[in-house]
């Protein structure tokens, strides 16, 4: 069974059609990257798969459950990190992770494991006991990544996971994401960082103006466009969609 199956997905905001028939599938254990220019429809797609936004038409299934008719079943499998997520500023990082773990853990042992895993992923050292209001942007992002992955979702949906992180912190987060799939998880992420998707993703979908323009592994896409990197592939796909 596919982890995610998106067929002919359409979504409009008023008279503006943001998604015009998006289609892709994700297999278990994959890191699947959605890349595209500003306004291409990445966040809209991720929010629909996360059950936060209703599609106008088309079908989206997560582990075989339809996001529109069975959203509660879908939510059992997923964890969603929004692009602009925040954490409760008056809590410490540790209190925040504990607060979230209480919702997900079925017993005390699982609660303890989740919080420990969250602390490990966040890598905030002794600052984990400082208030979130004192954190830098990058520290908050790491706390939120930890929050998304510590609950052991079968599918992690991460909107711009490394946005606002410096090079070293971004590398750390990429490693955490890779490790997470080694333990059986599947990841759907969006990114503007071409080096990141090339390094991280097993397959990439290029989305442009609400439609998937290309899907493939980084190696396949580079071969198809005779390109040295994914940035070149991206530029060529966008250029072609405007002029070819
Ligand atoms: N709530 C909304 N109301 C009206 N238009 C919206 C709304 N949300 C998104 N849009 C429009 O839909 C299109 C797709 O937006 P979306 O946020 O999905 O793009 P994106 O690829 O994630 O962009 P970015 O890379 O800039 O984050 C854009 O033109 C955006 O302006």
Automatic annotation (TrEMBL):
InterPro entries assigned: AAA+_ATPase, ABC_transporter-like_ATP-bd, ABC_transporter-like_CS, P-loop_NTPase
Protein name: ABC transporter related
Signal peptide stretch: none
Keywords: ATP-binding, Nucleotide-binding
Gene Ontology molecular function terms on file: ATP binding; ATP hydrolysis activity
Highest classification ranks of the organism: Bacteria, Thermotogati, Thermotogota, Thermotogae, Thermotogales
Pfam families found in the cross-reference section: ABC_tran
Annotated ranges, domain ABC transporter: 4-234
């Amino acid at each position: 069974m596919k982890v995610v199956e998106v067929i002919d997905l359409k979504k409009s905001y008023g008279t503006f059609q943001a998604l015009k028939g998006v289609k892709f599938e994700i297999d278990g254990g994959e890191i699947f990257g959605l890349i595209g220019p500003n306004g291409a429809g990445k966040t809209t797609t991720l929010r629909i798969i996360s059950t936060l936004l209703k599609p106008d038409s088309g079908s989206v299934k997560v582990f075989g459950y339809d996001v529109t008719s069975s959203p509660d079943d879908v939510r059992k499998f997923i964890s969603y990190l929004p692009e602009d997520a925040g954490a409760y500023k008056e809590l410490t990082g540790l209190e925040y992770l504990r607060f979230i773990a209480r919702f997900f853990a079925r017993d005390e042992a699982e609660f303890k494991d989740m919080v420990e895993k969250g602390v490990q992923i966040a890598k905030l050292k002794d600052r984990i006991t400082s208030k979130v209001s004192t954190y830098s942007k990058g520290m908050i992002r790491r706390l939120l990544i930890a929050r998304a992955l510590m609950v052991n979702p079968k599918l992690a949906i991460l909107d711009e996971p490394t946005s606002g992180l410096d090079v070293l912190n971004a590398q750390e987060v990429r490693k955490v994401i890779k490790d997470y799939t080694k333990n059986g998880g599947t990841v759907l992420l969006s990114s503007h960082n071409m080096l990141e998707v090339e390094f991280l993703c097993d397959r990439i979908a290029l989305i442009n103006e609400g439609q998937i323009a290309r899907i493939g592994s980084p190696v396949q896409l580079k071969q198809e466009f005779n390109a040295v990197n994914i940035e070149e592939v991206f530029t060529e796909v966008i250029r072609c969609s405007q002029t070819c």
